[in-house]
Amino acid sequence: MQKYARSIMLFGEENFKKIQKSRILILGLGGVGSFALDSLYNTGLTDILVVDYDVYEESNQNRQLGSVGNIGRSKVEVLQEKYPKIVILEKKIDLNWINSFDFEPFDYILDCIDEVLTKIHLILKCHRKLLSTSGSAKRIDASKLEYKSIWKTYNDPFIRKIRKGLKKRGFIGEYKVVFSPQEPLCELKGSFEGVTASFGLMLSSIAIQKIISKNVSKNI
Q1: Which whole number is the average pLDDT over 10-16?
Q2: Are the C-beta atoms of 72 and 89 separated by less than 8 Å?
Q3: 128 lies in which domain range?
Q4: In a domain, 44, yes or no
Q5: What's the confidence (pLDDT) of residue 1?
Q6: Which of 53, 57, 48, 50 is nearest to 19 (CA)?
Q7: Is the pLDDT score of 163 beyond 60?
Q8: How far apart are CA 105 and CA 103, in angstroms?
């Protein structure tokens, strides 16, 4: 267990066992999802199903793990080579797939996609175990990231569309998201790994804290 010695030092043996026994679903393996995967896997949580249908493009190289040297290759296949214990599913995450997929076996679902209607549908179906981010593009200050009620987010046009869509469908429950209140700095999807990766790492941190929260070790 030398590989996870530092994880065990931090979390304690009992909490580390809880982490290893947990099962995670990651939706989307871009600039957010790839870093969430890396963090969870290296911590010791390796029972992970990842879902993505895309291939690497040249423009992915500034922020997506696995993209360098793998242009044109399937994201899920490349990342399975790097993280061999994960299970991969090469599928487009759309409304039909969400309706047919069984989310029940997973402890937590990490929503790392950037499509408004799909996010709304995910929240409506499985918000109790879903951990979502807003869009991570157009910003440069990672220190601005917050995790708070979707109804209290601000300065974020993307999450505003999510709120509007949820209200229209009658969802008024409490739901928290990772977002940045920093004003967008460009119109198109300019991106900076210092921020996109931070979104993924924050999701990973939230998932780990939730996993151990029912039995917090004295070592934390």
Answers
A1: 96
A2: no
A3: 2-215
A4: yes
A5: 65
A6: 48
A7: yes
A8: 6
What is the C-alpha separation between 89 and 26, in angstroms, rounded?
Answer: 10
Residue 217 confidence (pLDDT) above 50: no
Give a yes or no: residue 7 inside a domain.
yes
> Residues 127-144: what's their mean pLDDT?
95
Name the residue among 66, 13, 58, 8 with its Cα closest to residue 37.
Answer: 66
Q: What's the alpha-carbon Rg for the chain, to the nearest Å?
A: 17
pLDDT digits (tens, 9 = 90+) for 40-91: 999 999 999 999 999 999 999 999 999 999 999 999 999 999 999 999 999 9
Identity of residue 101: F
Say if 220 falls within a structural domain.
Answer: no
Domain CATH code at residue 7: 3.40.50.720
| Per-position DSSP letters for 87-138, written without gaps between them | EEE-----HHHHHHS--TT-SEEEE----HHHHHHHHHHHTTTEEEE----S
Tell me which DSSP letter residue 176 carries: E
Per the structure, how many domains does the chain have? 1
16, 102 in Cβ contact below 8 A? no
- Entry field: residues in the chain: 220
Residue whose C-alpha is closest to residue 148's, from 164, 167, 132: 132
Residue 37 in any domain: the answer is yes
